[in-house]
Fold:
Amino acid sequence: MYEAISDAIGQTLEQEVTIVDVQALGGGSINQVSCITLDNGERLLLKQQVGAVQADTFQIEFDSLNLLAGYHCVRIPQALVCGDDFLVMEYIQAGTKAADWSEQLGRQLARLQQRSQQGSFGFHCDNYLGTTLQVNKWSDNWLEFWREQRLGKQLRLFAEVAGSKDPLVRKGEQLMQRLDTYLDCVNEPAVLLHGDLWSGNAMADELGSPVILDPACYYGHREAEFGMMRLFGGFGPKCEAAYAEIWPFEPGFEQRFRLYQLYHELNHLNLFGHAYYAACDSSITSLL
Structure:
């Protein structure tokens, strides 16, 4: 196994290398993450899939990391090489967050989004949010994109399990009929989103500066990034305030944040079960 990975690294570096040490860093039901050491002393990060292999997963992540890094706004691990069942990237030693880490991240995200503006919503390929297929067909209409490829998709997945008479499904259908109330006013360009930016996908490097990783990229409305960022404790008001110094939010953003957060809550409901039902119900009720 490691011989093939060593060969792939060597071809990229244009020199013969051997993996001499592997230290497991953690992982879950999707990926196993390790720090590998080469015979030249260099350390790299290795991700390997656990269980059934989705052949395109690591190629999509490889491309997404390089796309984010190309804007030179926030530190992204440099993707080195990938195969069907592995991805090798720069190993970044985790450090202690600087006192202004949250503010740094907010400003960096705002600059990334300002520099990545474009006309259409979507991505060049579908990708994965956890293990959920995230459809990214190009659209010029944000309301329709969110209705069909985001919120509607998650509600349909839940209805397949819970049935059409489930109270949450019925409330969701009511909200779908009111989406224009919240999104018809959006008249902003598409920007590049990380797409899965919760606190577990951000860290500090050895200097205490922000690093973001494990993206599920697409081009969307900029505020959609904050739907995930507010889950699980979020990044705090200082991060959002620093972002708004660079690119202020439009009126009504609090309700849109809740709508965008609902997408991720529903995804967790579909992935992990009933523990997320109440959160989904609360979000939908607040928007009706």
Q: What stands out?
A: Residues 101-287 form a domain with the Aminoglycoside 3'-phosphotransferase; Chain: A, domain 2 fold (CATH 3.90.1200.10). The chain has a mean pLDDT of 95.
